[in-house]
Amino acid sequence: MTAAAPHAGPDLAKTPGSPAASPSPSSSGRRTLRRFLPRFLPLTPALALLLVFLAGPIAYCVLIAFTDLQLTGQAQESFVGLDNFRRAFRDDAFLNAVGLTLVFTVLSALVGQNTLGLALAALMRRASKPVRTLAGGVVVTAWVLPEVVAGFLLYAFFRREGTLNAVLDFLHLPSQNWLFTLPILAVSFANVWRGTAFSMLVYSAALNEIPKEITEAAEVDGASGWRRMWHVTLPMIRRSIGTTLMLNTLQTLSVFGLIWVMTRGGPGGKSQTLPLFMYEQAFQNSLIGYGTAVALLLLLVGSLFSLLYMRLLRTEV
Amino acid sequence: MSLPARPMASRSLSSRRTARRLAADAGLLVVAVAFLLPLAWVVLSAVDPHAGLRVKAPDGVTLEHFDAILTDEITFTPLLNSFLLCGGATALTVVCAALAAYPLSRYRSRLNRPFLLTILFATSLPITAIMVPVYALFVRVNLIDTVQGTIFFFAASQLPFAIWLMKNFMDGVPKELEEAAWTDGASSLQSLARIVLPLMGPGVAVVTVFSFVMMWGNFFVPFMLLLSPDLMPASVSINDFFGNRGMVAYGQLAAFSIVYSTPVILLYVLISRRLGAGFALGGAVKG
Amino acid sequence: MRPTAARPAVRPTALVALCAAAPLLLTACGGGTGGDPDTLKVSFKQSTDNSVKVMDTYLADIKKQFEKANPGKKVELVPIKAPDAEYYTKLQQMLRSPRTAPDLVYEDTFLINSDITSGYLKPLDPYLAGWKDWERFADTAKAAAQGEDGKTYGVPDGTDTRGLWFSKDVFAKAGLPADWQPRTWEDVLDASRTIKKKVPGVVPLNVYTGKPVGEAATMQTFEMLLYGTNDGTSDPLYDKESKKWITAGKGFRDALGFVETVYKEKLGPDVADALDPNVGTRVRGEWLPQGKLGIALDGSWLPQDWLEGSGHEWPEWSKELGLAAMPTQNGQAPGKVSMSGGWTWAIPAKAANPDLAFEFVKTMQTKANAQKWYVANSGIAVREDVASDPAYTAAQPGIRFFTDLVEHTHYRPAYPAYPKVSTAIQEAMEAVTTGDASVEEAARGYDEALRDAAGGQVTSK
To answer: Which CATH class is domain C39-160+341-410?
Structure first.
């Protein structure tokens, strides 16, 4: 985490913190408070919203994760201690969802979005302008589309009668009903389709900040494209890679609408990632307490990644 | 260019570059076509009188699908709801974020760092995970199925990132510009509104557009927090109308998708035109 | 960049005050309980088939009558458009808060006890006591809307039975008789096998399965099988004496085996289609009318989609489809099996205008309006005055057949835990349908899920 390696964009790169007129260190607490309050008063609306609508639900999440609150069939909920968590770890459907979430995240975020995004960014530096514009435009459009629309487009694409099978037939390759046989693969590809633009944009920005002299020097030294990429380029953008991986992972962990529209987590739970499992338990199976416990676990995993991400950006704040 | 260019090397270098450019073009085109197929389906099906599930040349061009969906029930009410919901929440987000960013950017306090760290931490929390408790909480405090409740939650979920972005943009506005105003006795709010914000117009635009686009496409939040059919935004209503597999009217679905997606695509095009191609959203966005 | 360490900047008092104020603030934004005393909110289940408007049309008519008879009052219809399983979720979500609770809701009888336990519904006894027409309702129907506390929570608007629908056209092509009546499960499977062999391109037999279709899988398929595995007198799911749920026995495994056979031998629809939440819409809207399905194990209400003005007019259905009772497993007495459920109109505990809501129920249940509804939705009358009216029995060819099945029908043990037991059944069915589990494994999975669902109150028999 050294020096000025380029990373997630120009804005995060700026060193924040301001050369403000700081209160003199020797002033008494009372005086500081008098000065502090009016100055930081503008923070209150944001603070209120965050406390009430973000911190509040998180606290409430912790609370009901330890109850047996149900949507129906129950007169009064009660505290059940760790029951929900014990239940989760012996629940095959939960373990299945954990596994699928891993597959989904690794396939679509780590491998798919990240690698494809980097490849696209690298290719774009060399490609001619019209091709670059076209490719960039198409990839970004997929990203800007509303989640549900993306879900419908890819549902149509992967259906038995859909475009993918038409292409495969044309190439004389075996076609199949992707949403049924390999639903997790289909939704992973859908997430790659929808999310690659982000990695591409970040990597484009990062690559643009590498001084031309460095790559050219390597080129003249006769280093091949791959070697240059591996030994020169990648090390220079490693911080961007770190943050992109984290952000992709966090974004992918919370994908719901895309999968809901394409498969509803089915068939037989074969594309049921944790957010869908959580929803099903809480509402379709009426076990709000249990669903919330799963939500809390998801939140913990997210927090871990979030902390990791903050470590990567440590010097920024 | 620091290297002395030898003629021989430079020639082979340039031919190598041309070859590489062609290879890069070819690679990009393949990916572009793969990404384009689903998009082509939606455009072609919207005007195809016999739209099916696969990409094909339309059997003719018709506007009947648009005609069928441009009704109050299917299109106008949900889109209006989307505008109210996302517009309201975006306005709230931007105002709160600008207000919050100012002291964070201008004054020092020992609370700044922990606060900013918390904000950064919150930017990347999976909001999906807290939707079940948010639902339960909203039932308890009687905010369920209200537009204002949904706006508040949308704004709160977008705020951490908006504050973070806004503060970074604000740090880029030199303090000296404000000092004159201060000596004239302007309050910090006045100096924020009259000097700082106008100078960071692009930054405010990025935060606004980004928040709006994120909310416009969000399915899960209104799906959980709203119940009445006449409050539903387009992201949810599209699923009610067209999510019923098997009987789907594909042409209408495609037409609706286009109508529903157009505002955000326009916004994106507009802002990337104004701010240049590699514009800040690309780098700063959390996806 | 490290912040300069000034001495204590601010005491946390402000934060604490904010936290304390938060609930107040929240409630303040929440506002009142949203009830206009002159507006009656009636929610109902709208078909997911965009062209079917049976209930919309009927309620619009009642609304007009009601508003005319009660000047100054307005009826607001709140359609909930979702596949069955999602409908129940949405409804329960609405019932939880006074803001969203409508004044009148449409409740499936299998869920009513569960929702009564949650305190979502209002007992109707005070209203019923002063309502003469209530005496016209059959006792079984009254019982279906009763809570464990003996109070009545809903007014049933009909019941249903289930049986086998078959395409005479497909049967003719397969060389099967037009007056087909299978004696055993094996007869049903054999007919399907014949269709599969002789009539390509046709789905031989549809039996609903898996979680996506929800209760339809449990009731239309599984219970229709399970209640035909024993002597036909005792309940194979629930033991009334010990008040315990019964774990998977031989009958349970045999019923799962039937489902497995259908999908393993590809006698049913493509598994991907079978596990689509809207497969029911396709069976009624596409497969049966277009002659793409040989046999359908389905409910008595199917013709409602085919009546004039319903969106999928198919007046010829009664000539093109045959009807047969579902046989018991090995043809043991009584030979036939059927299940009955039904829907009720119920008033939420948090309704703003319960009195007005009951007036609306009365308007729906004048004899003329009730009869109109039974004909429109192909329902089986639970009011003796309608049931005995020749205008009703003659309105539709299927009514007599399905009414006769009432004699052999069973009712679900719709106790509070039932919805979860039903989900456990659907999971077991789905596992054998996709082939992810053997019958044995799926039955073991059910036993485990049952223990959770019933809070340990299980027994084996």
So the answer is: alpha beta
